[in-house]
Amino acid sequence: MQHDSVTSPPATTPAPPIDAGDLGYQKHLRKRHMRMIAIGGSIGTGLFLGASGRMALAGPSLALVYIVCGIFTFMVVRALGELVMYRPSSGAFVSYAREFLGERGAYSVGWLYFLNWSTTLVADITAVALYVHYWSFFVPVPQWVLALIALTVVVALNVVSVKLFGELEFWFALIKVGTIVVFMAVAIGFIVTGTHIGGHAPGFSTITDNGGIFPRGLAPMLTIALGVVFAFGGTEMIGVAAGESDDPKAVVPKAVNSIMWRIILFYAGSVVLFTLLLPWTAYSAAESPFVTVMSKIGVPHAGDVMNLVVLTAAMSSLNAGLYATGRTLRSMAVAGTAPRFAARMNRNGVPYGGILMTSAVGIAGVVLNLLMPQKAFEIVLNLAGLGIVGTWASIMICHWIFVRRAERGDYPRPDFRLPFAPVLNVLTLGFLVAVVVLMFFDGDIGRITLVVFAGVVVAMVAGWFRVRGRLNQEVLQ
């Protein structure tokens, strides 16, 4: 049986290093904030909006994809949790890569994570605009205007203080979880009573009469894996937030251990209920599946209420993305691998420089919504997924190195740990490689994404040669 405490290091064991990028932050995130950040990080636009498009491709088999990807997600976050117990850091993956892979590794991980959240930022403001267009009053307002308004509001809130961020995420997550629970209760009630929804009798017949669990075969189920990984992006947020928690070693283990059941219940459970209530062909990529169901149950304004909730989920993801990239870019700027402006903090300990830099990418997303409003969400989805894959791979590699060093006596290994390391590290890395390979078979969008990502890699290599001469060699002490 594992315990959620850390073993006391022997007197001869050196203390964990101190990362200069962690200095200046205020420890204002309480236990309730941390728990809800962990919950909210695993529930976002990937479920509330992205599930519809994926069901249109894979049908009910999407639930199986969520479960398989969820297992590997848990392994990644469990490994991250062990690193947090060893040394909490606001730089998180960047700081751990700095220690175990060197500054070149920290540079690569940091910019991949920035790629993840900056492109997710575009997806989130696109989702907000799509959600708002649900109401006819806002239809005349251009999609790009709505996206710009969402970006402006969240940037303004994010730069105030980490305490405000924690409060916002607490209530955002509470609304999301509460809504899903209510939805599930209503859905189960309709299924048990056999009450028709939109002219359909709920039950297993909606699956068996519409092609079964694999209506389009196994291939679509495999090719949507990257999109599902994108849906789980944000679960690693607990590692970043730990650096500003008042008691990370008490709250992180419990938060990490709850991820598995949350993924199975919220993601796989929701998809099962969706496909039991309505045929999988009833869902559209342009509308949240929750809104589709609630709009058809006949309760006045049910669709409006649900759309407001999924709008909250998108704003939550947008808020979290700005938070994470602000801390990541500051950690890199202190080391000299990101612009110095990203290291700037205000008097409340908020790295506003990195937040504003990320918001600049959001402006590019506004332009994308202006030029290609129908494809904006799909275009950035895969690119964000590749950023997540790279970040998660770095976590597993850093953890693997940490375990090897701990086994030879360099570090005391925490009691809260990823079991069966390094076997699970290897399996998870193999899974992440397979996800990228499968992208090649995901039609034109998948191949275009790989070409664009290759261009990103070339840019990162060129950037490294430019910054390597100005590295700060005293970041870790």
Q: What is the rounded distance between the termini?
A: 35 Å
Number of domains: 1
- Unreliably modeled segments: 1-11
Give the tally of β-strands. 0
Q: If you compute it from the alpha carbons, what radius of gyration comes out, rounded to the nearest whole angstrom?
A: 22 Å
Specify the biggest β-sheet. Answer: none
Please write the CATH class name: Mainly Alpha
Defining key terms:
mainly alpha, single chain, Amino acid/polyamine transporter I, disordered N terminus, 0% strand
Protein model, in words:
- The chain has 477 residues and is mostly helical.
- It has one domain (38-465): Amino acid/polyamine transporter I.
- 68% of the residues lie in helices and 0% in strands.
- It has 20 helices and no strands.
- The protein has helices at residues 31-41, 45-48, 50-58, 62-86, 93-100, 102-132, 143-158, 162-193, 205-208, 219-223, 225-232, 237-241, 248-257, 259-277, 289-296, 302-335, 352-371, 376-407, 423-439, 443-467.
- Helix 6 packs antiparallel against helix 18, helix 8 packs antiparallel against helix 16 and helix 16 crosses helix 17 (352-371).
- The chain is globular.
- The model is unreliable at 1-11 (pLDDT under 50).
Topology:
Elements: H1 31-41, H2 45-48, H3 50-58, H4 62-86, H5 93-100, H6 102-132, H7 143-158, H8 162-193, H9 205-208, H10 219-223, H11 225-232, H12 237-241, H13 248-257, H14 259-277, H15 289-296, H16 302-335, H17 352-371, H18 376-407, H19 423-439, H20 443-467
Helix pairs in contact: 1-8, 1-13, 4-11, 4-13, 4-14, 4-18, 5-6, 5-18, 6-7, 6-16, 6-17, 6-18, 7-16, 7-17, 8-14, 8-16, 11-18, 15-16, 16-17, 18-19, 18-20
